[in-house]
């Protein structure tokens, strides 16, 4: 019976992971977050131990529970491009500085640290697929603060790897644009989800124009959250220690689509569903520049496809959800409460 500590338990990955753990295992979840709205009835589950708190304030609670639990998942992070450009220090302070003591406590108490790296660490790598063991990490100049998130995450990956050389049991996982129900709003720091899907859904239900940046030709490999959670569960289970000292891309190379294609797919689905059709028919796709949309400190990545060979072979996992089914599931999740979807983030 594992005890799993999830910091950022109310976030996109956190609440989906908690639900899966409580439904399919006998494990206990110890979770901290500043809110619990996405957890719903899970907070009353006998194996869910929720604490409302902040990792930067409630440090004694965090350390006590790292000592108490078997597997540590620090999922608290800011991962929105607009914030990288406008408030880079805030990104560094939370994503690196606030997480470093958690990593060190995992070292101190000899726990299995399962840390969320990011597909962003590969930066503007030109490989056709990003390989965790071989691909170079390529970032722009210092006057492009967009890269502070990737740099912060990469530095943490290297620190964790260094601790691994001294005995830390760790697994780094890199989510590639996970999407699904329970998308975050602008008010919540989030990890691992694709903010662009949230943004487009908000525009569609409000009948607003969808902005595609620099033509929308840049591609992303989108991954349905259930597939991602499947892989994460296998990492936490860590049968025969298979995940120790490993780095796993968790993504779906088959769901590689441009941002413009994403917008068109979402509009097509919305127009076929009565609850969304009226406002969807008012939406136009308009082009804008990255400078106008994010600010001058932005640079984009044209291609981001994961190499997942080791993830599949070592974990016995593969992604199965098509792009069409993933998007339909998201629309279905908000179908009964379109008003709730209208409050979704309106700027990435």
TrEMBL record:
Q: Which InterPro entries match?
A: Arna-like_SDR_e, Epimerase_deHydtase, Lipid_A_modif_metabolic_enz, NAD(P)-bd_dom_sf
Q: Which Pfam families match?
A: Epimerase
What GO MF annotations does this protein's record show?
Answer: carboxy-lyase activity
Under CDD domains, the record lists: Arna_like_SDR_e
Q: Does the keyword Cell cycle apply?
A: no
Q: Which UniProt keywords apply?
A: NAD
Answer whether the UniProt record assigns the keyword Transmembrane to this protein: no
Cite the NAD-dependent epimerase/dehydratase domain residue spans from the record: 4-251
Q: What is this protein called?
A: NAD-dependent dehydratase
- Species of origin reads Polynucleobacter yangtzensis
């Amino acid at each position: 019976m594992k005890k799993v500590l999830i910091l950022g338990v109310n976030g996109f990955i956190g609440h989906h992971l908690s639900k899966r753990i409580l439904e399919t295992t006998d494990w206990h979840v110890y979770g901290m977050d500043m809110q619990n709205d996405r957890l719903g009835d899970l907070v009353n589950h006998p194996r869910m131990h929720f604490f409302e708190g902040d990792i930067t304030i409630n440090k004694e609670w965090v350390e006590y529970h790292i000592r108490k639990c078997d597997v540590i998942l620090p999922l608290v992070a800011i991962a929105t491009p607009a914030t990288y450009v406008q408030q880079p220090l805030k990104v560094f302070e939370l994503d690196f500085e606030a997480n470093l003591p958690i990593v060190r406590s995992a070292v101190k108490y000899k726990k299995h640290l399962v840390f969320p790296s990011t597909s962003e660490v590969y930066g503007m790598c030109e490989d056709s697929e990003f390989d965790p063991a071989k691909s170079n990490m390529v970032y722009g100049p210092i006057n492009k603060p967009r890269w502070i998130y990737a740099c912060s995450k990469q530095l943490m990956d290297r620190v964790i790897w260094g601790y691994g050389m001294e005995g830390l049991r760790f697994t780094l996982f890199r989510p590639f644009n996970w999407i699904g129900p329970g998308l975050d709003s602008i008010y919540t720091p989030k990890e691992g989800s694709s903010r662009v899907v949230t943004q487009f859904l908000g525009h569609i239900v409000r009948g607003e124009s969808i902005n595609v940046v620099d033509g929308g030709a840049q591609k992303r490999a989108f991954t349905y959250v259930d597939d991602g959670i499947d892989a994460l569960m296998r990492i936490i289970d860590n049968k025969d220690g298979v995940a120790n000292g490993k780095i796993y891309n968790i993504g779906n190379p088959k769901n590689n689509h441009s941002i413009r294609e994403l917008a068109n797919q979402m509009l097509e689905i919305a127009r076929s569903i009565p609850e969304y059709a009226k406002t969807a028919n008012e939406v136009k796709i308009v082009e804008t520049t990255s400078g106008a949309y994010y600010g001058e400190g932005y640079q984009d990545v044209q291609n981001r496809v994961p190499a997942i060979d080791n993830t599949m072979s070592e974990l016995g996992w593969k992604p199965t959800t098509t792009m069409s089914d993933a998007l339909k599931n998201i629309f279905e999740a908000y179908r009964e409460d379109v008003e709730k979807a209208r409050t979704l983030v309106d700027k990435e």
